[in-house]
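>> Question from a student workshop board

For tomorrow's exercise we were told to take the sequence and the ligand below, predict the bound structure, and bring the output to class. My setup keeps failing. Could a helper post the expected result so I can at least see what it should look like? The ligand is zinc ion.
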Amino acid sequence: MNGDGGSRLEAEEPEDRCPNCDGLGWVERRVPLGHPDFGELFPCRCRESAADRERMQRLQNYSGLTKGMLDRMTFETFNVRRHDINSEGQGYLQRAYLAATTFATHPEGWLLITGEHGTGKTHLAVAVVEHCIRNGLPALFTFVPDLLDHLRAAFSPNSQVQYDQLFEQVKSTPLLILDDLGAETSTPWAKEKLYQLVVHRHNSRLPTMITTYLEIDEIEAAHPRLSSRLMDTFVNWVPIGIPDYRDNRRDHPNSRRRGT
Ligand SMILES: [Zn+2]
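>> Workshop helper replied:
Here is what the output should look like for this input. Compare the format with yours to find the bug.
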Protein backbone atom coordinates (compact mmCIF):
# COMPACT_ATOMS: atom_id res chain seq x y z
CA MET A 1 0.00 0.00 0.00
CA ASN A 2 1.26 3.46 -0.83
CA GLY A 3 -0.70 5.39 1.74
CA ASP A 4 -3.01 7.07 -0.78
CA GLY A 5 -5.40 4.19 -1.00
CA GLY A 6 -7.64 5.19 1.83
CA SER A 7 -9.60 2.86 4.01
CA ARG A 8 -11.69 1.39 1.21
CA LEU A 9 -8.67 -0.17 -0.47
CA GLU A 10 -7.13 -1.25 2.77
CA ALA A 11 -10.19 -3.31 3.46
CA GLU A 12 -9.35 -5.43 0.41
CA GLU A 13 -5.80 -6.43 1.11
CA PRO A 14 -4.61 -9.45 -0.88
CA GLU A 15 -4.11 -11.52 2.25
CA ASP A 16 -7.86 -11.23 2.86
CA ARG A 17 -8.34 -14.01 0.36
CA CYS A 18 -12.03 -14.35 -0.46
CA PRO A 19 -13.37 -17.49 1.20
CA ASN A 20 -16.18 -17.67 -1.33
CA CYS A 21 -13.95 -18.20 -4.38
CA ASP A 22 -10.62 -18.87 -2.62
CA GLY A 23 -9.25 -15.80 -4.35
CA LEU A 24 -10.00 -17.03 -7.88
CA GLY A 25 -12.64 -14.39 -8.53
CA TRP A 26 -15.01 -16.88 -10.16
CA VAL A 27 -17.49 -19.29 -8.69
CA GLU A 28 -19.69 -22.12 -9.89
CA ARG A 29 -23.22 -22.36 -8.65
CA ARG A 30 -24.34 -25.62 -7.14
CA VAL A 31 -27.25 -26.37 -9.41
CA PRO A 32 -28.51 -29.73 -10.64
CA LEU A 33 -27.71 -31.14 -14.05
CA GLY A 34 -29.97 -29.56 -16.64
CA HIS A 35 -30.16 -26.19 -14.90
CA PRO A 36 -29.11 -23.31 -17.21
CA ASP A 37 -26.37 -22.24 -14.76
CA PHE A 38 -24.90 -25.75 -14.56
CA GLY A 39 -21.14 -25.76 -15.20
CA GLU A 40 -21.08 -22.00 -15.78
CA LEU A 41 -18.64 -19.73 -14.00
CA PHE A 42 -19.87 -16.50 -12.47
CA PRO A 43 -17.91 -13.54 -11.11
CA CYS A 44 -17.57 -13.84 -7.35
CA ARG A 45 -19.10 -11.22 -5.07
CA CYS A 46 -15.58 -10.06 -4.18
CA ARG A 47 -15.18 -8.69 -7.74
CA GLU A 48 -18.18 -6.43 -7.51
CA SER A 49 -17.50 -2.73 -7.78
CA ALA A 50 -18.75 -0.17 -5.30
CA ALA A 51 -21.48 0.79 -7.77
CA ASP A 52 -22.59 -2.85 -8.05
CA ARG A 53 -22.68 -3.12 -4.29
CA GLU A 54 -24.71 0.06 -3.99
CA ARG A 55 -27.22 -1.21 -6.52
CA MET A 56 -27.42 -4.55 -4.74
CA GLN A 57 -27.98 -2.72 -1.47
CA ARG A 58 -30.87 -0.79 -3.01
CA LEU A 59 -32.35 -3.99 -4.41
CA GLN A 60 -31.93 -5.66 -1.05
CA ASN A 61 -33.70 -2.80 0.74
CA TYR A 62 -36.47 -3.01 -1.82
CA SER A 63 -36.82 -6.79 -1.50
CA GLY A 64 -38.31 -6.68 1.99
CA LEU A 65 -35.78 -9.26 3.18
CA THR A 66 -32.85 -8.89 5.55
CA LYS A 67 -29.30 -9.54 4.41
CA GLY A 68 -29.17 -12.40 6.89
CA MET A 69 -32.04 -14.20 5.23
CA LEU A 70 -30.75 -13.50 1.73
CA ASP A 71 -27.34 -14.86 2.67
CA ARG A 72 -28.70 -17.92 4.42
CA MET A 73 -31.51 -19.02 2.12
CA THR A 74 -29.91 -19.29 -1.30
CA PHE A 75 -30.19 -21.96 -3.98
CA GLU A 76 -26.69 -23.03 -2.99
CA THR A 77 -27.76 -23.72 0.59
CA PHE A 78 -30.97 -25.54 -0.34
CA ASN A 79 -30.59 -29.23 0.35
CA VAL A 80 -32.32 -31.22 -2.38
CA ARG A 81 -30.92 -34.53 -1.17
CA ARG A 82 -32.13 -34.68 2.38
CA HIS A 83 -31.46 -38.01 3.99
CA ASP A 84 -34.51 -37.82 6.23
CA ILE A 85 -36.94 -38.14 3.35
CA ASN A 86 -37.56 -40.96 0.90
CA SER A 87 -36.76 -40.88 -2.81
CA GLU A 88 -40.31 -39.84 -3.70
CA GLY A 89 -39.97 -36.82 -1.42
CA GLN A 90 -36.57 -36.03 -2.88
CA GLY A 91 -38.14 -36.12 -6.34
CA TYR A 92 -40.65 -33.50 -5.25
CA LEU A 93 -37.87 -31.35 -3.80
CA GLN A 94 -35.79 -31.60 -6.95
CA ARG A 95 -38.70 -30.62 -9.18
CA ALA A 96 -39.52 -27.65 -6.94
CA TYR A 97 -35.87 -26.64 -6.86
CA LEU A 98 -35.57 -26.80 -10.62
CA ALA A 99 -38.81 -24.86 -11.10
CA ALA A 100 -37.63 -22.14 -8.70
CA THR A 101 -34.17 -21.83 -10.27
CA THR A 102 -35.72 -21.66 -13.74
CA PHE A 103 -38.18 -19.02 -12.58
CA ALA A 104 -35.38 -17.01 -10.96
CA THR A 105 -33.28 -17.15 -14.12
CA HIS A 106 -36.19 -16.39 -16.46
CA PRO A 107 -38.97 -14.79 -14.43
CA GLU A 108 -41.95 -15.45 -16.66
CA GLY A 109 -45.46 -16.55 -15.82
CA TRP A 110 -46.42 -17.68 -12.35
CA LEU A 111 -44.93 -20.27 -10.07
CA LEU A 112 -47.17 -21.83 -7.44
CA ILE A 113 -45.45 -24.06 -4.88
CA THR A 114 -47.68 -25.96 -2.51
CA GLY A 115 -46.64 -28.11 0.42
CA GLU A 116 -46.58 -28.47 4.19
CA HIS A 117 -44.72 -26.02 6.38
CA GLY A 118 -41.05 -26.88 6.58
CA THR A 119 -40.80 -28.37 3.10
CA GLY A 120 -38.57 -25.52 1.96
CA LYS A 121 -41.07 -23.38 0.03
CA THR A 122 -39.99 -20.18 1.75
CA HIS A 123 -36.32 -21.04 1.33
CA LEU A 124 -36.91 -21.36 -2.43
CA ALA A 125 -38.88 -18.11 -2.50
CA VAL A 126 -36.09 -16.22 -0.72
CA ALA A 127 -33.55 -17.85 -3.03
CA VAL A 128 -35.46 -16.56 -6.06
CA VAL A 129 -35.20 -13.03 -4.66
CA GLU A 130 -31.51 -13.49 -3.84
CA HIS A 131 -30.82 -14.73 -7.37
CA CYS A 132 -32.69 -11.78 -8.91
CA ILE A 133 -30.80 -9.28 -6.76
CA ARG A 134 -27.51 -10.86 -7.78
CA ASN A 135 -28.58 -10.42 -11.41
CA GLY A 136 -29.49 -6.79 -10.74
CA LEU A 137 -33.26 -7.33 -10.98
CA PRO A 138 -35.82 -6.07 -8.49
CA ALA A 139 -37.95 -8.60 -6.66
CA LEU A 140 -40.33 -7.99 -3.77
CA PHE A 141 -40.87 -10.64 -1.10
CA THR A 142 -44.04 -10.43 0.97
CA PHE A 143 -45.31 -12.64 3.75
CA VAL A 144 -49.04 -12.54 2.98
CA PRO A 145 -50.34 -11.96 6.56
CA ASP A 146 -47.81 -9.13 7.05
CA LEU A 147 -48.64 -7.63 3.68
CA LEU A 148 -52.32 -7.48 4.54
CA ASP A 149 -51.51 -6.03 7.97
CA HIS A 150 -49.43 -3.32 6.32
CA LEU A 151 -52.17 -2.54 3.83
CA ARG A 152 -54.74 -2.44 6.58
CA ALA A 153 -52.54 -0.11 8.67
CA ALA A 154 -51.92 2.14 5.68
CA PHE A 155 -55.66 2.21 5.06
CA SER A 156 -56.40 3.75 8.46
CA PRO A 157 -57.07 7.52 8.49
CA ASN A 158 -54.04 8.39 10.67
CA SER A 159 -51.56 6.34 8.68
CA GLN A 160 -48.21 7.83 7.71
CA VAL A 161 -48.03 5.68 4.60
CA GLN A 162 -50.23 6.27 1.60
CA TYR A 163 -52.38 3.21 1.13
CA ASP A 164 -52.77 3.73 -2.62
CA GLN A 165 -49.03 4.05 -3.04
CA LEU A 166 -48.29 0.91 -1.06
CA PHE A 167 -50.94 -1.14 -2.83
CA GLU A 168 -49.84 0.13 -6.22
CA GLN A 169 -46.22 -0.75 -5.49
CA VAL A 170 -47.06 -4.33 -4.53
CA LYS A 171 -49.54 -4.69 -7.38
CA SER A 172 -47.17 -3.57 -10.09
CA THR A 173 -43.74 -4.65 -8.87
CA PRO A 174 -41.86 -6.50 -11.66
CA LEU A 175 -41.54 -9.71 -9.64
CA LEU A 176 -43.68 -10.43 -6.59
CA ILE A 177 -43.39 -13.24 -4.08
CA LEU A 178 -46.52 -13.98 -2.07
CA ASP A 179 -45.25 -16.25 0.68
CA ASP A 180 -47.63 -18.33 2.75
CA LEU A 181 -50.95 -17.63 1.11
CA GLY A 182 -53.62 -19.00 3.42
CA ALA A 183 -51.87 -18.02 6.66
CA GLU A 184 -53.65 -14.66 6.61
CA THR A 185 -56.77 -14.01 8.61
CA SER A 186 -59.48 -14.29 6.02
CA THR A 187 -61.60 -11.26 6.69
CA PRO A 188 -63.70 -10.11 3.72
CA TRP A 189 -61.41 -7.07 3.48
CA ALA A 190 -58.25 -9.23 3.32
CA LYS A 191 -59.83 -11.54 0.76
CA GLU A 192 -60.84 -8.60 -1.38
CA LYS A 193 -57.34 -7.05 -1.28
CA LEU A 194 -55.71 -10.36 -2.18
CA TYR A 195 -58.19 -10.85 -4.97
CA GLN A 196 -57.53 -7.40 -6.43
CA LEU A 197 -53.81 -7.99 -6.22
CA VAL A 198 -53.91 -11.40 -7.85
CA VAL A 199 -56.34 -10.34 -10.56
CA HIS A 200 -54.24 -7.33 -11.51
CA ARG A 201 -51.06 -9.36 -11.74
CA HIS A 202 -52.87 -12.12 -13.57
CA ASN A 203 -54.38 -9.78 -16.14
CA SER A 204 -51.05 -8.03 -16.63
CA ARG A 205 -49.13 -11.32 -16.73
CA LEU A 206 -46.67 -10.02 -14.15
CA PRO A 207 -44.19 -12.63 -12.87
CA THR A 208 -45.41 -13.88 -9.51
CA MET A 209 -44.41 -16.68 -7.20
CA ILE A 210 -46.86 -17.94 -4.62
CA THR A 211 -46.25 -20.42 -1.84
CA THR A 212 -48.99 -21.98 0.22
CA TYR A 213 -49.55 -24.87 2.60
CA LEU A 214 -53.08 -25.15 1.25
CA GLU A 215 -54.03 -28.03 -1.00
CA ILE A 216 -55.69 -27.09 -4.27
CA ASP A 217 -59.15 -28.00 -2.97
CA GLU A 218 -58.49 -25.92 0.15
CA ILE A 219 -57.56 -22.92 -2.02
CA GLU A 220 -60.83 -23.42 -3.88
CA ALA A 221 -62.72 -23.47 -0.58
CA ALA A 222 -60.87 -20.56 1.07
CA HIS A 223 -60.41 -18.39 -2.03
CA PRO A 224 -62.91 -19.49 -4.68
CA ARG A 225 -62.31 -16.38 -6.80
CA LEU A 226 -58.54 -16.80 -6.63
CA SER A 227 -58.41 -20.48 -7.41
CA SER A 228 -59.50 -20.12 -11.05
CA ARG A 229 -56.61 -17.69 -11.61
CA LEU A 230 -54.20 -20.05 -9.91
CA MET A 231 -55.36 -22.95 -12.07
CA ASP A 232 -54.70 -21.04 -15.28
CA THR A 233 -52.40 -22.71 -17.79
CA PHE A 234 -49.68 -20.11 -17.43
CA VAL A 235 -49.31 -20.96 -13.75
CA ASN A 236 -46.67 -23.60 -13.11
CA TRP A 237 -48.01 -25.55 -10.15
CA VAL A 238 -45.33 -27.53 -8.35
CA PRO A 239 -46.45 -29.52 -5.32
CA ILE A 240 -43.97 -30.65 -2.68
CA GLY A 241 -45.58 -33.80 -1.38
CA ILE A 242 -43.39 -34.87 1.49
CA PRO A 243 -45.28 -36.64 4.26
CA ASP A 244 -44.51 -35.77 7.90
CA TYR A 245 -42.23 -32.91 7.16
CA ARG A 246 -43.75 -30.50 9.60
CA ASP A 247 -41.15 -30.54 12.36
CA ASN A 248 -38.40 -28.86 10.41
CA ARG A 249 -39.43 -25.22 10.47
CA ARG A 250 -36.14 -23.63 11.38
CA ASP A 251 -35.62 -22.11 7.95
CA HIS A 252 -38.75 -19.99 7.98
CA PRO A 253 -37.92 -16.28 8.28
CA ASN A 254 -41.18 -15.42 9.96
CA SER A 255 -42.07 -16.25 13.49
CA ARG A 256 -45.82 -15.94 12.96
CA ARG A 257 -46.78 -19.45 12.06
CA ARG A 258 -49.90 -21.49 12.14
CA GLY A 259 -50.38 -23.31 15.39
CA THR A 260 -50.31 -26.78 13.86
ZN1 LIG B 1 -14.42 -14.11 -4.20
